Amino acid sequence: MAGGSNGDGDAEDVVMARWLQSAGLQHLASRYASTGVDNRLLPNLLMQGYGAQSSEEKQRLSKLMRNLNLGGEIGTEPYTPSDQNSGGFATSDGFYSPEFRGDFGAGLLDLNAMDDTELLPEYVLSEPFEPSTFMPAVTSAFNSDFDVLNSQTLKALPDADTTTLLPTNDKETSARENNVAKIKVVVRKRPLNKKEMARKEDDIVTVQENALLTVHEPKLKVDLTAYVEKHEFCFDAVLDENVTNDEMYRMTVEPIIPTIFQRTKATCFAYGQTGSGKTYTMQPLPLRAVKDIVRILHQPVYRKEGFRLWLSYFEIYGVKLFDLLSARKKLCMREDGRQQVCIVGLQEFEVSDVQIVKEFIEKGNSARSTGSTGANEESSRSHAILQLVVKKHNEVKESKRNNDGNESRNGKVVGKISFIDLAGSERGADTTDNDRQTRIEGAEINKSLLALKECIRALDNDRLHIPFRGSKLTEVLRDSFVGNSKTVMISCISPSAGSCEHTLNTLRYADRVKSLSKGGNSKEQVASLVPPAVKEVLAAQPLHVSSDADETYEQLQDFREDTYKKIVENSSYDMCYNLENPPDNYPTNHTLNARQEILATSGGPETGRLERKAISSGSTGQKAPLTSYIQFSSNAEQKVEKVSPPWRKSENPGLSITNSKQPMANGSSTSNGCYKQNEPEPPAYEDHIKDILEEEKALIEAHRTVIEDTMEIVREVSCFHLISSYLT
Ligand SMILES: Nc1ncnc2c1ncn2[C@@H]1O[C@H](COP(=O)(O)OP(=O)(O)OP(=O)(O)O)[C@@H](O)[C@H]1O
User: Which residue range(s) make up the domain with 718?
Assistant: First the structure.
C-alpha cells in the first residue's frame, strides 16, 4: 500500500492496516494496494462508494470511521450513503450525491453519527428501559408501561428476520434506520413569497452542497457605502426552496419511525420566524408518518401482539392547553405518582388508516388559534402538538377514551412521536405595532421557545437535570426528554433581505443546537472557563465546588437555570439594573458576557448566540460601564432571592441550587418554582407580563416624544441657518 512518504506515513499505513483488519475489512485495503492512494484517505474513499459494497461492510466501515474520528487521526466526518441518496432524492441533481458532498460530507451529522451505545438495539429487548432520573428507584411499574416485543415474540417471527418489520423495502437500510442521531438539525429555506417579490426583495440565502448555507447580509458602512457580509453555516442537512415536503419527510422523520417501535419517544419540531414555513413543513409530516406506522402495524407479528396506533392533537396557547379534536375543550396537565405527565381530558383516537388521520388533522387545524402578524396573515399563535402513540393492547374494547392515566387498562405505551408546529418567534422590535394581546402572546411564545432550547441543550449534554418545567410546552414534552428520545429540529428560514436578521437568529439558534449535538463545548472546556468569581458564588451555595469538571459544569448550569427561572417567574427587569462596578478581580469580559447571557435568556431564543459566547469565551476584554443583573460575587445569592415571587417566599433560600439536583418528591414538588400537584398555578405571572408591557408602551411613547422634540429642534436650527445664510 502506498502511504506517506516518510516514516510517519509508514507508521500510519501500519496503523491503518490494523484498523481495517480489526474491522475485518483488510480485503478492501488490498484493492488499493497498487494505486498509490494515501492510506489515511482510504476509509473516506471507501465510504464514498469506492470499495465498500455490502451493507455489512459499510456498517463496519462506518463504525471504524467513528473510532478514527474519536481517536483524532482523521479529522473528518464519515459519509454514509443515506436513503435520500439512494431513493428519495434524485442524485442527478447532485444535491445529495456522494460526489458533491465534497471531501467527506462536512457537517453531516448523519444517521451514523452517534455512538453505538446510544442506540436502541435492533430488537434486542432484554435491555431494561432507561429510567428517568426523576423516576422513583423502583421502576418496574414504569417499565411495564413500555411493553415491547419480547424474546418470545422474536421467536414467533417466521424466519427470525426482524428487518421484515421495518417499513422499507430495502433490508440493507434497517441498521441505518435504527442508527438515528439523537438530535438532528435540518434547515429549510422557503421560496420568496409574492409580497417579497412585489417589493423586489433579494434572495440573500444560498444553499451549497455539503449541507452548507450562506447568508449574504446587506450592510452599510458609516460612510453609507453598501457592502455584503457573508455568514456561513453548516447543518446536518440544508434543504433549498426546490425540496418537496415528501423529501423533507424522508430526510427528517422517516428514519425515526422504526425506533418508536423500540420504546423511543421522538419529537419533531419546526422552529423559525413567523411566516417562514413551519406550518407548511410540519403539516404533511404526520400523515406520511402514519402511512409508514400503519404499514409496520400490519405486520403479522404486531397484529398478533395487539399493537395499535392512537392519535391526539392539542395546542398550548399561552399557558393553557386546548384539545383541538374536542371542540377546544380546556385541558389540564397533571403529574401522576410516577412523575409522568398526564393531560387530563385529552381525547385519543385509535387510527388505522391515513384518510381518517387526514380528517382529524384538518379538524384540528381549523380549531387552532391563529392571528395576524406583520409577516404572516394567518400566523399560528399557539404551539400545536400532534402525538402518535403506539400502544400494545391485550384486548381493546374502546376506540375512543380519555387519557386519564389509566393506560394500563387500555394499552401500554410502546413508543410515540410528537409533531410540534411551534408558534413563530418574534423579535421584541417587531412587536411594537402589534396589539396588546399579540404582544402578550409573543412574550409567552418566546419564553417557551427558550425553555425548549434549554431542554435540548440539557438533553444533548446528557445532563441529569432537564429543565422541562421552564414552560408548559416543555412540561408537556417531558417524556420526550428522558429515557430513549430522538429529536429532529427543522429550522425554517425566509430568504428575503428584509428577514435577514430573523434568519440569522434562527440559524444561530439551530447552529447552537447542532454544535451541542456534536459535543460542542466539552464539559472540561466549560469547567476550565469558569471564572474564579463564579466558582466563589457556587462555593457559597450549599453545593461545594468540586475540582471535577463534570460537577462544576453541572453546578454552573444549574445555577444558570435556577437564576433564569427566577427572572422568568418574576418577569421583571428589577434584576437587570446597575452593576456599574464589577469586582476588581473579576475579568471584565466575563461580566459583560454574564450580562449578555442574561439578556439572551430574558430576550428569548434569538439571542441564544450571545448566551453561547458567554459560556465559551475565555478572553478578557476592555473594562466598560456595565449593567448586569448578576453579580458574580458572594452577594449574588441574596440578589437572586430578593426578587423571588411571593409564592416562593416560604421556600428555603439556600436551596436554589440543591433543589434542582434533587429527585422530585413523589407526586409533588416545589423545587424550581413549579406548582404542587392539585394546587392552582401561581397567578402572578400574567400580571407581571401585563405590567411589563405597560411599562414598555410608556417607554416607547417617551422615546417617540423625545425623538419628535429633537426633530423639531433640528428643523428650527436648520431653518435658522438657512435664514442667516440668506441674510449674509
Ligand atoms: N417551502 C415552501 N414552499 C412554498 N410555499 C411555502 C413554503 N414554506 C412556506 N410557504 C408559504 O409561506 C406562507 C407562510 O407559511 P407558514 O404559515 O407555514 O409559516 P409559519 O412559519 O407557520 O408562520 P407562523 O409562525 O406565523 O404560523 C404560507 O402561505 C405557505 O404556503
Answer: 683-728
